[in-house]
Amino acid sequence: MSDASSKHNEIKTLCKALSSALEVDKKTELKELLNKLYAIRVDEKLLRATGAGQVVGKLRNYEEPNIAVLAKKVVHKWKTDVMAANSRRNGPPVGATSSSGSQTPSSVSQAPTPQRPQPGERISDNSQMQPQNSDDRTAARGPSSGTAGNDVSVPSSLAATRPASSLGTDGAQTSNAASPTESVTPQTQVPRTAATDEASIPQTGDAVRDKCAELLYNSIAIDSNADSELLAKRASAIERIEFEKAASTTTAYRARIRSLCLNLRDKKNPVMRSNLVEGDLTVERFCSMTSEEMASKELKETIEKMKEENLFKAKGAGRTEAATDMFRCGRCKGRKCTYYQMQTRSADEPMTTFVTCTICNNRWKFC
């Protein structure tokens, strides 16, 4: 079995165990599984195939702070791995050295934005201008330390997007201790859409229906790592079911699609979006859900609390009944009764007493 296949199987197994542990709230097991996932180096293809990002992403808002921080570290580390893998695959060769023997990456990685080649930096023909004296050479290298034989060069185009890190002798990126507060590069914050994915959504021949399917795809794929074919399949199935219920592209049909898109885009409800993509929530069940059922856990708790408060406020003051043995029931001759008094006549008249026998439920009144 190849290394990629074994990683795929291992991640799928760990994610399945992670979901099971989350359902039964086993905090110790969650930490162990997250640590194992943190130790695995991934790439974009592997994350999309396994859907691991969705599973781990659920834990970033977990009630236990230690688990939430650990989940954020795993996600941050995976983003770093994907960026490093993409740069090795798409960027210029890493490790080119000058005629003097080496070039350190410090002066390049510290630049906040890509700049034009300056004296002492890489130029277009992959060669490096030599400093005129020892002071210039020191300035070009920057404050980095280490032997010249182990230093490698970094493409200047990556300096603005890659986080501060050190590079090993094999050109692989070795990230420092990941922190959940570290900023994410703009590249990873761009939401996925049908246009960016170049998704092939099944066409119906109706411009309105095709546009609705595209909107549903954009709402499902906003932060998903799943394959574009799977997302297109889910979006097309939802649109087809809603069209069959409406029978045509009526105003009600468009309003329903708009409502589904808004609920899918809810940043506080990534669980529903993830369950829909993974198949835990079927398309048929999703299309039959109301807006209240689609609400996030926090919103449902808020609505339930408001209902309880409104019910309590709506309750009027009821009459107060007292138990007594002063009265005798004319039907069963018992003395276990309850009574209450109410002003039924004018204010200068005595109150009317209402009596109920608790034995035979006989009722009578007197003034």
Automatic annotation (TrEMBL):
It comes from the Eukaryota. GO terms for biological process: regulation of mRNA 3'-end processing; transcription antitermination; transcription elongation by RNA polymerase I; transcription elongation by RNA polymerase II. Residues 144-191 have a biased composition (Polar residues). The gene is tfs1. SMART domains: TFS2M, ZnF_C2C2. Necessary for efficient RNA polymerase II transcription elongation past template-encoded arresting sites. The keyword DNA repair does not apply. Belongs to the TFS-II family. Residues 325-365 form the TFIIS-type domain. NCBIfam families: TFSII. This is Transcription elongation factor. Residues 85-205 are annotated as: Disordered.
